[in-house]
Amino acid sequence: QVQLVESGGGLAQAGGSLRLSCAASGSIWRFNVIGWYRQAPGKQRELLAAIRSDGNTKYADAAKGRFTISRDYAKNTVYLQLNTLKPEDTAVYYCNTLYGQGWGPGDYWGQGTQVTVSS
User: Fold this and answer.
1) Residue 104: exposed, middle, or buried by beta-carbon count in 10 A (0-12, 13-18, 19+)?
2) Whole-number average pLDDT of the chain
3) In the 8-state DSSP scheme, what is residue 89?
């Protein structure tokens, strides 16, 4: 059973930054892909960024140039650095893991962390 725990969300002003963390139970080497998604009220959950075991990354247009995904194998943690935040970034942010091929999403989700950006 995979457990994922997100943290780092909160209230930020427009133009500000936050760093989200996703801590996994056990080694993140197990996963082919770890991704960050978000879901705003009334909207579908969307992929923001993902990192593959070979180091390749994928970003959604909404994330390019502002968000950065990274990982720390020693801490079994994946991060999402959020810069230049906008009010439309307000959402619950989730991490997800995938064992198989492709970019996901896989079967395992964290509980999410709320990000609220004020104008």
Assistant:
1) buried
2) 95
3) G
Question: In 3-state terms, what secondary structure has residue 78?
Answer: strand
Q: Which tokens go with 17?
A: 């930054």
Length of the chain: 119
Beta strands at 108-109 and 67-72: parallel, antiparallel or unpaired: unpaired
CA dihedral of residues 100, 91, 11, 9 (deg, nearest 10): -20
Q: Are 6 and 96 in contact (CB under 8 A)?
A: no
**Average pLDDT value for residue range 18-22:** 98
pLDDT tens column, 35-89:
999 999 999 999 999 999 999 999 999 999 999 999 999 999 999 999 999 999 9
CA angle 36–97–60, rounded 5-degree value: 30
CA atoms within 13 A on the CB side of 22: 29
Tell me how crowded residue 88 is: count the other CB atoms within 10 A of its CB: 11
Q: Which of 12, 4, 29, 30 lies closest to 82, judged by CA?
A: 12
